[in-house]
Amino acid sequence: MISIKTLRELKKRNEKITVLTAYDASFTKHLEQAGVEVILVGDSLGMVMQGHESTMPVTVDDMVYHTKMVSRAREHALLIADLPYHSYLNKEDALKNAQRLMEEAGADMIKFEGGGEFVAIAAHLISNDIPVCGHLGLLPQSVVELGGYKVQGREKTAADKIIEDAQALKDVGVEMIVLECIPQQLAKRISEEVDVITIGIGAGVDCSGQVLVLYDLLGITPGKRPKFSKDFLAELESNKSITAAIEAYVKAVKNLEFPAEEHCFN
Ligand code: KIV
Q1: CA 163 to ligand 1 centroid distance, Å
Q2: The domain 4-263 belongs to what CATH superfamily?
Q3: Where do the structural domains in the chain lie, given as residue ranges?
């Protein structure tokens, strides 16, 4: 089984960590077969599976339902589940909902978005033996406040705040942080200066690992794909199968070929 200790060792020997989303048992089996180290039951399921405009309508019951399906098929990978919108506004709700995702649904770790006031929530979960993954930069649950899905941390004050939040999360015991849509130089700085596992999505090649939404990687997502993603299935020259596309992603991340410059922001 992959543990946080395994991921720390990968980071220490500069081997990139591969993370992908899954929302059901069949895709989880493909991820396992391709050797993906971490599976994320992301609240992106609200957009790619449920057809909502944002992740905000996703409920804790939805996350428990999908995490259970993934958990049944998971063999080796570390399983992270997202706390959805408004499910961690105070310590009591955060703990109750995180415990459901761990105990009822089978997650190993819980992810939620934000620094600042949410650092105390992270500390509370960790003191109750719940491993926490942070999420900084573009926060899809705050898309209304952010005015859209835009790159974050381009100005110095915004960049400093993201670094400060990453350090504060680390200081209370957060072991892993997803960095979404931030300039690659900023992600590099955080990865070097904060002693934490960084997982990038639109954050450049210098993070400890990469994550993508599986539906983007397989070209399932209708319409325009985000700049930071890549349709690995479409780009296969032969043997076009789902497992081969996921294996191509794993290989590209491990060889530092993904993300390429065209998938990054400055
Ligand atoms: O919900 C999700 O799938 C995520 C990833 C995009 C990191 O949070």
Answers
A1: 20
A2: Phosphoenolpyruvate-binding domains (3.20.20.60)
A3: 4-263
- Atom number in ligand 1 closest to CA 199: 7
Closest protein CA for atom 1 of ligand 1: 42
Which of 17, 38, 43 is the pocket-test mutation for ligand 1 (most atoms within 8 Å of CB)? Answer: 43
| Predicted pLDDT at 256 | 98
- Give this prediction's pTM: 0.98
Cα of 51 to ligand 1 centre, how many Å? 15
Beta strands in 144-230 (DSSP E): 176-180, 197-201, 209-212
Structure tokens at 217: 């990687």
Cα separation, 73 vs 59, in Å, equals 22
| Atom number in ligand 1 closest to CA 212 | 6
Q: Would you please indicate which residues are annotated as catalytic (active-site) residues? A: 180
Contact status, residue 179 vs residue 201, Cβ threshold 8 Å: yes
Question: What is the pLDDT at residue 260?
Answer: 97
State the chain's mean pLDDT as an integer. 97
Residues 63-113: tens digit of each pLDDT: 999 999 999 999 999 999 999 999 999 999 999 999 999 999 999 999 999
115 within 8 A of 153, measured Cβ to Cβ: no
Ligand 1 centroid – CA 235 distance (Å):
23
Question: In terms of Cα–Cα distance, which of 53, 52, 109, 63 is closest to 86?
Answer: 63
What pLDDT, on a 0 to 100 scale, did the predictor assign at position 47?
Answer: 95
Region 230-234: mean pLDDT is 96
